[in-house]
Amino acid sequence: MSKVKSTEYLFLSTYIRARENALLGQKRLEQMVEAADFDEAAKVLTECGFADLSGASDAKLEEAFSARRAAFLDEFEKLCPEKQLVTAFRLKYDYHNAKVLVKSEHAAEARERLLSACGRVSPAVLAEAWREDSWQDVPEKLAAAIQQARTTMVRTSNPQLADMELDKAYFAELLAIAGTLSTGFYTGYVRLSIDIANLRSAVRCIRGHMDEGLLRTAAIPGGNVSVESVCRSYTDGVAEVFHDAALAKCAELGAQAVSGAPLAGFELACDNALTAYLTAAKRVSFGPEVAVAYVASLEAEITAARMVLQGKRGGLSPEALRERLRVSYV
């Protein structure tokens, strides 16, 4: 089967470029940071197409963010020449829902209210499959991953181990989808995401004096840095293992965190490394790269807005908020 040509993305790319002006962006984020209080910061989001969220509860904020994400993914599905690219972005929410359900195995209350409607499978269908242990309406790989994680949760009562299994299944499925697309740009993004996840695991395991076996269990295959190399972080150090240019700054700060420095700077550098990768799409007039960068940036916008608003509600200073903000794509 022939690959989709970049010219088939011309309409979607034009549509996205027009919408980029409505992303939160660095300027509006700074306005939110400098706002006197929660309500004033929330009003900035009206410039991005949100309803006025002044006085909104955390639940209302999540509802607004979820609606924005869902609306764009629905539009994206109609306009994108490669439906598998839409599937790739929806996959994240399927596996988020899987984690919610698996963690409910020993929970005192149902967690179905935490399920996202942005995945391939509706929350109602997934919750029913979970209750009935009947998976015919769930994609095969997702169903297998959930059942395996559920078995692990029952056997160990350890949600961390179940999460690790689901993360591996998620990235394996994501890489398989990426290999069918017309661009290597998305594959590069996924591989970098795996590297960053593995670097974070290495830093936390070494910093917490955890057994090397836990890192081997957590390490996700498919990144630019092999699992064997990731596990060598215990002996060679994270700065030596993750020395690639895209991760050099992250690895340097990770090494400092291993030695006791705060994790905040390291975590921020990891987020910024992904944003830096996406900026290559700005040099592309049209093509799948534009779509990949936009959808990833929409996610980053929601994360940033949530963090600032929660910070404002909690009384954090502008300086404290800036320390936590990643670089914006726009």
Plain-language structure description:
- With 330 residues, the protein is an all-alpha fold.
- The chain has a domain at 1-82 and 287-330: Topoisomerase I, Chain A, domain 4 (Orthogonal Bundle).
- Helix content is 67%, strand content 0%.
- It has 17 helices and no strands.
- The protein has helices at 10-19, 25-34, 38-44, 58-79, 83-103, 123-132, 140-156, 159-178, 184-207, 212-218, 227-231, 233-236, 238-241, 248-258, 264-278, 288-313, 318-324.
- Helix 2 (25-34) runs antiparallel to helix 3 (38-44).
- The longest helix has 26 residues, at 288-313.
- It is globular.
- The two termini are 35 Å apart.
* Main beta sheet strand tally, sense and closure: none
Helix content: 55-70%
Instruction: Please indicate the percent range of residues in DSSP E strands (runs of 2 or more).
Output: under 5%
CATH architecture of the domain at 1-82 and 287-330: Orthogonal Bundle
What would the keywords be for this entry?
330 residues, mainly alpha, Topoisomerase I, Chain A, domain 4, 0% strand, globular
